[in-house]
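Wed. Picked up where I left off yesterday with CRAL-TRIO domain-containing protein. The coffee machine is broken again, so keeping this brief.
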Amino acid sequence: MAIRLSHPLRHHLLINPNHHHTTKPLRVRKFSIKNEKSEPVEPHKMVMKVKQTLEKDYKNLPVGKNGRDDEEMILWFLKDRKFDIEESVSKLTKAIKWRQEFNVSELSEESVERMARTGKAYVHDCLDVNGMPVLVVVASKHFPNREDQVENEKLCVFLIEKALSRLPDGKEEILGIFDFRGFGTENSDFEFLRFLFDVFYYYYPKRLGQVLFVDTPFLFFPLWQLIKPLLRSYASLVRFCSADNVRKEYFTETTIPADFRD
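Structure written out below (tokens, as returned):
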């Protein structure tokens, strides 16, 4: 999936990587948290503050699921920003605007079908042993110089959305597997890796539980040295491992992805 930072992404990813209005009550346990200023906060009250701010200052933002009045989304960004109202509003508005401009809600199996047929990336049918949905990227099937950049962007975002839609109750993160077996210079794509991790950082924060780089060849490491400083905290989520590690540690015999079967 070659990703060029084009159209809406260029406005928000600058580094040199069904809109129905539903009012879903937010279930929040009665407890207090302390933010970075050591002030006790109540999550529901903080959500209401952000919601009111967005309604007052950002009336043009969409409402409904993943909109400015989506209380679950607001709470997620508050937790990401350690309950700092100003930072949460800033990051949340960028995410909502991006979703609107990128037409995330209009992505579907049909709209990404041609690129998905390449097999370069997919959401595995089974969860891993920790109950996380699994997004697999097959690097050897990715040819950045031959493919439509916009279509690759759409496939990338669609699969993130699909993986998140499969989160079981009580789970919040997904597992990303990058299969580097057969990887060659023609598959190398700095822009894609930067795009992917930036999308997770800005628009899907704290949704990656772990990232596996499987059987990475020597020629990948110069690329890794370029991308690693840009990954921020996500760099600590990356584990270099073997296909055997994937089979034995992350899946059972019945849930292992077909690409990793002996």
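Quick read: The chain has a mean pLDDT of 86.
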